[in-house]
Amino acid sequence: MFLIVLLACLLAVAYANEEADVVKEYREVNIEDFKYGFELTNKIRAFQEGHLQDEKSWLVKGEYEFVSKDGKHIKVTYTADEYGYHPKVEHSQ
After folding, report:
1. Are residues 61 and 81 in contact, defined by beta-carbon separation less than 8 angstroms?
2. Separation between Cα atoms, residue 54 and residue 40, nearest integer Å
3. Are the C-beta atoms of residues 33 and 27 closer than 8 Å to each other?
4. Which residues contact 69 (CB under 8 A, 6 or more apart)?
5. 41 alpha-carbon distance from chain centroid
6. Global pTM?
């Protein structure tokens, strides 16, 4: 599950297909929870946090945003749990 959510964030970064510098970055990884986030100079931003619900399942929530090649601002908020990945996509000009 964590891998799917991480992949979605990385795809957003790859979609922008341009070089950028890191403006902010942080991460905190523990045995039962984690948080990470970053912001780049090209307006790509991502944040994710999660915690272990029981021995086998995680509850993860986060968001990422970027500007598409056609100039639309895309923001994806999501949760991920034992039932799957649940995104909500917003876009504006």
Report:
1. no
2. 34
3. no
4. none
5. 16
6. 0.73
For the CA atoms of 15, 41, 37, 59, the dihedral, rounded to the nearest 10 degrees, stands at -30
Query: Percent of the chain scored above 90 by pLDDT?
Result: 58
63-74: per-residue pLDDT in tens? 999 998 888 999
pLDDT of residue 92: 86
- Sign of the alpha-carbon dihedral angle for 39, 15, 5, 84: positive
Decide which of 20 and 35 is more confident.
35
In whole angstroms, give the CA distance from residue 86 to residue 39.
23
Question: What would the DSSP string read from start to end of 5-65?
Answer: HHHHHHHHHHHH-S---EEEEEEEE-SSEEEEEEEETTS-EEEEEEEE-SSS-EEEEEEEE
Q: What does the pLDDT look like over 28-52, one tens digit per residue?
A: 999 899 999 999 998 899 999 999 9
Task: Work out the end-to-end distance of the chain between its first and last CA atoms, rounded to an integer number of angstroms.
Answer: 31
